[in-house]
């Protein structure tokens, strides 16, 4: 198997975090021919990243689908707890983290296209909602769902990387700090090797493109 990925992409970061957490020896490559190429469109089914190429050569796109597949295919070390209730909680926290990612990415694209105050207000509302839900539902210590690292952490750790940058742009420079449980969690999870490795990759790739986290 191999993964088509881009270190700048917030949608690829969770998949790489899951791969690193599981210690999988997968080839991670850029999209052949480039992301917008016809070659990659044929190779990936959807033309989007990330895309996992399975052993039989078939493409499996979509970040959450790939992570779920890896969990099923390589169940140890587990990224889901035992029991339907505990698993449902992890998936719910992942959904909140995905909402945060979507808000940050949406704002980034809106600003690139000259979006004004209305776009910033929409993004601020979405980020505040996602962070508020996480603040009230995540664990007080350890990882997002408790003592064990889960697939929700694979998503939330990278998602939080952009909040300190985007907060000031929407008039909330202390957006992360205003959610102390989330802020403390980010301090912890960023030191966890799979997440820390991904955060470093994202930062290096964005810096090479001229973007800075400050």
TrEMBL record:
PROSITE patterns: GST_CTER, GST_NTER. It comes from the Bacteria. One of its GO terms (cellular component) is cytoplasm. This is Glutathione S-transferase family protein. PANTHER family: GLUTATHIONE S-TRANSFERASE OMEGA (PTHR43968:SF6), PTHR43968. Coiled coil: none annotated. Residues 1-78 form the GST N-terminal domain.
């Amino acid at each position: 198997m191999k993964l088509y990925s881009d270190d700048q992409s917030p949608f690829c970061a969770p998949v790489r975090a899951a791969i690193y957490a599981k210690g999988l020896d997968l080839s991670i490559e850029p999209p052949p021919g480039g992301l917008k190429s016809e070659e990659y469109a044929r190779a990936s089914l959807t033309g989007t990243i990330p895309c996992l190429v399975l052993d039989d050569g078939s493409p499996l796109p979509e970040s959450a689908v790939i992570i779920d597949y890896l969990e099923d295919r390589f169940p140890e070390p587990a990224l889901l707890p035992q029991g339907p209730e505990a698993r449902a909680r992890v998936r719910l926290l992942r959904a909140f983290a995905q909402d945060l990612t979507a808000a940050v990415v949406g704002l980034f694209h809106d600003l690139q296209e000259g979006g004004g105050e209305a776009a910033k207000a929409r993004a601020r509302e979405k980020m505040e909602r996602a962070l508020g839900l996480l603040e009230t539902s995540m664990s007080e210590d350890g990882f997002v769902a408790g003592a064990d690292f889960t697939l929700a952490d694979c998503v939330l750790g990278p998602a939080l990387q952009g909040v300190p940058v985007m907060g000031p742009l929407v008039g909330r420079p202390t957006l992360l700090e205003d959610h102390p449980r989330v802020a403390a969690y980010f301090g912890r999870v960023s030191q966890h090797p799979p997440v820390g490795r991904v955060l470093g990759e994202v930062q290096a790739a964005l810096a090479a493109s001229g973007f800075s986290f400050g």
